[in-house]
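Example 3.2
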Amino acid sequence: MTDALDDREATAPADAARPRLRWWREVSYAAGFYLVYSLIRNATAAESVRVAFDHARSVIRVERLLGLYHEETIQALFLHYRWLVKALNVYYGSLHFVVTIAALVWCFRRRPDRYPLWRNTLAATTALALIGFALFPLMPPRLLDACNSFGACSHYGFVDTLERIGGLWSFDSGTMKSISNQYAAMPSLHFAWSLWCAGTLWPLTRERDWAKPLIAAYPALTLFAIVVTANHFFLDAVGGALVFAAGYVVASAIVARRSNRGVDGADVASAP
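Structure, written as tokens:
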């Protein structure tokens, strides 16, 4: 009986908030934000290759001091399993968006009372990541062994798995070259968004215990994918975790401030 009452109380705010949410408004906000994000993210690609390469060497020095520099060793353990590496390339290039969008839609439909907090967390996390891309362009491990335009040929042992093994897309295509910034690696937005997805979806486990290991495994699998594909250093993931935590704090402060003004979560959801 108590559990039933708790469930009704928990869903009451959601039911009250649902009519005030407008899917078309949220879609327009998301599309506009992603357009701005893409423009700013790709604008930082104008940074010189030399700067991104020097930053990568700095990250490696820090990781060596901390005992974290094991990315090349981990990648080497799995390179012989081409099917796995190819699957991880597909995972890296697609689930980053698919799972995030699915989590956002699920939260909108099933937990509108929580939606403003987690939508704002995603926006704040992404905005903070953009600052990192602009201030610290970073060459990913997979590009370190290439002969760069400034004549530096390094030998760190990483393999560009997307080029060597392949996936659903390639950075060498004309379209990807024009719309992607390969030096937007610090912080890892893949890892930050995976943590966001886990935080957003975790309430689902209240009704479906089978989902717990899947949700908990998603950030871990994302970390595994970004390391094996040599798209990120471990410190990039640390940066991703930090911007996610900061994004959550910023979003919580926004929601709390509006709540103190007498604006409930549903009203926040209707604000840009």
